[in-house]
Fold:
Amino acid sequence: MMTRDRGGPQLAFQLLLYPVTDAYLETTSYGQYAEGYLLTRAAMAWFWEHYLNEPAEREHAYAAPLRAEDFSGLPPALVITAECDPLCDEGEAYAKRLEAAGVPVTLTRYSGMIHGFIRRAKLLSQGRKAVSQIAEALRANLCQI
Structure:
């Protein structure tokens, strides 16, 4: 959004793995997966406290993209979420906002997976599948430049 708003550099693609797109930690997935699934609601609250200079910045779209009014003109995106992740709902909400603005987007939710599952690709077949999906998306979107 910042590069669009400030005239560059032009980005070719968004690769978003279990993205953080809002600062309010109040989604259904935050309620369901607040504890016991690796990433916790308490950890995310700690991260937000240390990320922002002041609480009012929670409303700024550059910190919390779901707070943006305009999603047009953003690059195509691959958004990957994990079902058992507090961030699942906000990542999927971001993908839906992109799609509603006419941005080409692929959204994939990996069922039964937790935050960070892609880093465990040697152990998890879903992780290997996600790595392949990421590689294909990068090849398709960046090799055209």
Q: What stands out?
A: The chain has one domain: 2-142. Residues 2-142 form a domain with the Rossmann fold fold (CATH 3.40.50.1820). The CA atoms of residues 61 and 68 lie 5 Å apart.
